[in-house]
Amino acid sequence: MSVSVSASGEKTARLYGLKDQDRLFATEPQEVALEVLDTPSNNSSQMEDAFPIKVYEYERIPISLDPQRVLDDVIEILDEDYADPDGDDTVPTERMVEASKRFVEVIKEEYVPTLYSPTGKFVEYSFSDALEISKQHFNSIENTAPETSEDNGVCKWNISKNEEGEDMCLTDCGELFVYEGLTPNENRMRYCCYCGNKLSF
Fold first, then answer.
1. How far apart, in whole angstroms, are the C-alpha atoms of residue 15 and residue 27?
2. Does the first or last residue of the chain, that is N or C, have fewer Cβ atoms within 10 Å of its Cβ?
3. What is the pLDDT along the chain (201 residues), one digit of tens a residue?
4. How many other C-beta atoms are found inside a 10 Å radius of the C-beta of residue 167?
């Protein structure tokens, strides 16, 4: 059985990712499509070549603990350290048995596994599907973006190159933004990631 690890400490019962993905982060399948779409590439044709994709559903692996086995392991450790090695094994008392059952119940309630296994379910996205998801995503950001003042509502980014020949933008708010491949405008960036004002190119 393939197992994936929850990235960034997600504690949801289900996560989403590509097939055999080592680390999971997405709580919705659309997030995976956006991540693939945002993977740096030199041109739009390379982006399109990454599709179609199948986004798989993963579920948290349930804890399987046997109270009797837990108790036996504890008693074995105690007998090794505190009992006559040539004597008989300690027989658990009724209180020990009941305590072991309560202990396992609490562990199952409180311990949150970070390992996930695929359920077999998946959603397939085409390149056009991903573009539509991206469009809806950016529209929702624009609709919920905070209001900016009229005097300082736009941040102009001037496209240039640094001394190493890397593509970069000089921002009105005094920052340097280095990028690869598509320009921020081509990537449909709408707000400055430094000052929060609307972008102008």
1. 5
2. N
3. 566 676 655 568 899 999 988 889 899 999 999 988 887 664 566 778 889 999 999 999 989 999 999 999 999 999 999 998 888 989 999 999 999 999 999 999 999 888 899 999 999 999 999 989 988 877 776 565 555 444 458 898 888 887 777 888 888 888 888 887 777 877 778 888 888 888 887
4. 16
- Pairing state between β 4-6 and 115-125: antiparallel
Instruction: Please tell me whether residue 4 adopts helix, strand or coil conformation.
Output: strand
- Per-residue CA distances from 55 to 49, 118, 125, 198 (Å): 16, 11, 8, 33
Place of tokens 């000089």: 170
- Residue 115 and residue 104: Cα distance in Å, rounded? 19
Question: What is the Cα–Cα distance from 151 to 92, expressed in whole angstroms?
Answer: 77
Q: Where are the domains of the chain?
A: 4-62+113-132, 67-110, 148-200
Distance in angstroms (rounded) separating the CA atoms of residues 62 and 13: 10
In angstroms, the CA 52 to CA 47 distance is 11
Give the torsion through C-alpha atoms of 166, 191, 8, 39, to 10 deg: -50
Instruction: Give 93's contacts (C-beta < 8 A, 6+ positions apart).
Output: none
